[in-house]
Amino acid sequence: MEETRTIDFFDRTFHLSENNTNIKQECLAGLTTFVSMAYILFVNPSVLGVAGMDKGAVFTATALSAIIGCFLMGILANYPIAIAPGLGDNAFFTYSVVLAMGIPWQKAMAGVFVASVLFTILSFLKVREIVINAIPKDLKYAMAAGIGIFISFVGLQGGGIIVSSKSSLVELGSLTVPTTWITIFGIFLIAILMVKKVPGAIFIGLVATTLLGLLTGLVKMPDHLISMAPSLEPTFGVGIKFLPTMTDPKMWAVVLIFLLVAFFDTAGTLVGLAQEAGLMKDNKMPRIGRALMADSLSMLGGAVMGTTPTSAYVESSAGIAVGGKTGLTAIVTGTLFILSMAFSPLLEVVTTQVTAAALIVVGVLMVSALKDIEWDKFEIALPSFLVAIGIPLTYNISYGIAFGFLTYPILMVAAGRRKEVNVVMWSMFFVFIALLYILNVLPK
């Protein structure tokens, strides 16, 4: 009887039956998403540590901001999308703002806090929602595909299958590297399981790949299993304490960049994931206002605790591919981030070579959105193509989207379809010109 009440509660709260899913499927999806993005708990402290921040405090701030974001996304928006500090934002913070511009991390964190406050206000006023709903469907399909190619590229790099090259930018990695074969094993295993239509194929593949790494000694067992979460004291509230430094004009340029990059990174990712999950209705994402508010509040919380802006994670696509369709998936992911704070040493066994296979396979699923683009109309084909190819080649979701937004209005006018270009798209045309100017003119 108690079990029935529990099932009914989750069904009413997350509308499981309406979305043709169940508790088991959502839990599996949440677990898969967590395993795919758990690397951020170690990568974020490493990147921000270069800027001089305390790695232990950043680890805890990363986990807490992810917990806040995932729970808000699950409860407010009922979407299977996880939130955590974004990789692009932390790299910009460290290498462009702190190291290149010579701004101390404490002062830079004040800029992040101000950008977070503005971000939340824009979400509350539904400005972000209006912009996303105004994006043409073809460009949304291109975003989904571009993100798919991007995460596959990340997976190929993480697995060592693709490496950098001085002569041709990238080239095939060495197949004599043992850890590369962990990724190759994972790709084939997941692919075979998916062809066989085995439920949870991606998660099963991740577990099996991890076990292979442990058995062969290519993945090391952690020295201990349990560790208390490090203190937040070194970073907590630093951004607020350094608000008086915002009198520096250079800091407002930094705020603008954080604001614009975070705005379109999250927007592009949300649309791409919703497209893949089949959640779009009439070219609009239902409850997108709530989803954006969840993202904004988690970004604000992260800025207070001491980490760079949060973002919707493309790795959520792994959970969506497993069958995640509601906010319960995000809740499960957030719960696992809570547990990860106590059992953080165990996360070391999930290496980039392990998660790489899942990212590559999921990328294949997302690229299928290309089939819905009107390729026979060049005024639509070129902007869509530039978005899809621009995201992975620039290694930046915002840049890829910018290519499409800058060419779409011009080509639509040339094709005699000026009336189909709405005010928002023209506004974004000029916003992206400003963004590209700022990013390429400010000191590197």
Automatic annotation (TrEMBL):
**Which residue ranges does UniProt annotate as crossing the membrane?**
28-51, 63-88, 108-127, 139-163, 175-194, 201-219, 251-273, 326-347, 354-373, 385-411, 423-442
Family named by the database record: Belongs to the nucleobase:cation symporter-2 (NCS2) (TC 2.A.40) family. Azg-like subfamily.
The protein's name is: Guanine permease
Q: Which GO terms describe its molecular function?
A: purine nucleobase transmembrane transporter activity
Look up keyword Metal-binding and say if it applies.
no
Q: How does it sit in the membrane?
A: Multi-pass membrane protein
User: Which superkingdom, per the lineage?
Assistant: Bacteria
Q: Where in the cell is it found?
A: Cell membrane
GO CC list? plasma membrane
Q: Which key words tag this protein in UniProt?
A: Cell membrane, Membrane, Transmembrane, Transmembrane helix, Transport
DNA repair as a keyword?
no
Query: Do you know which Pfam families this protein is assigned to?
Result: Xan_ur_permease
